[in-house]
């Protein structure tokens, strides 16, 4: 169980351990997690590149304790890139993944979930003490996320209808939304935009949430109060704050069964029914990418990404 091995990935040496250790009740092991992240790397890496990565680690598997990790841990290999980010709580030295070996190294620490902000380090304002999240020199976001969090009683079909309504509203503003499952119960929309101060993106996201709640009060809610969410979809606009992050497409989730945050086609969204499972196993995800390629590629920023309009209020 605690056997250690030394291997090479793309010429880089890694020490791996406990590959047979189950991380999920189904028996899905750490070795299988490492293999998944290495195998999915071709489509995953472009979405992690130049992003400050937060990991959710499950040292004893998903039935044990977990914790968010932002700082690069002691002993981080020299080949792993890090980026300093100045926050109100002090400077954080984030990992910024660039290669397959980085993913294998992270998975060896049982970093099951990978989360990234809406801004990239290449669009952030750099200072002597790193990237600054607060003040006039805040990062420039290159995407807007519309996180549709289903309340009690909301089915996948309900979430699909909500996603279509939200995407239609965005389309009327000249913004193209791309859907993915969160890997759990909800759906998330991502809109590539030209670099925009994160506070402006947050203000727009908040106004969109309020607009959807006013226009469709029996479907959406814009308040964070959990007792107000029954039978409604909470539009979690706070995911757009510079200090917040969202699960990355193709990331595994630390749930009771292995499930991946999955880019979807709008045809698949429209086909969701009340009893349709919205979870994709890592093995199925690898097969899916073989057949469909990277559906999330359209969310990557380009010079043609549209400007974000002002708030809807």
Q: Give the terminus-to-terminus CA distance.
A: 57 Å
Strand content is: 25-35%
Following the backbone from N to C, one meets helices and strands in this order, namely EEHHEEEEHEEEEHEEHEEEEEHH
The best one-word shape is: globular
Strand order of the largest sheet: 11-12-10-14-13
User: Helix fraction?
Assistant: 10-25%
- Our Rg estimate from Cα atoms comes to 19 Å
Task: Explain how this protein is built.
The longest helix is centred in the middle third of the chain and has 18 residues, at 198-215. α1 (30-39) packs antiparallel against α3 (100-108). The chain is built from seven helices and 17 strands. A hairpin with a 2-residue loop joins β8 and β9 (130-132). The strands form five sheets. A five-stranded mixed beta sheet has the order 11-12-10-14-13, with helices on one face. The protein has helices at residues 30-39, 41-48, 100-108, 156-171, 198-215, 266-270, 282-292, and strands at residues 4-9, 12-17, 54-57, 67-69, 81-87, 90-96, 111-116, 126-127, 130-132, 140-150, 178-181, 187-197, 220-221, 233-236, 246-247, 252-253, 259-260. It is α+β, with helices and mostly antiparallel strands and 313 residues long. The model has no long low-confidence stretch (mean pLDDT 94). Helices cover 25% and strands 26% of the residues. Residues 29-296 form the DNA ligase D polymerase domain. This is DNA ligase D polymerase domain-containing protein.
Descriptive tags:
26% strand, four-stranded antiparallel sheet, 313 residues, 7 helices, globular, alpha+beta, five-stranded mixed sheet
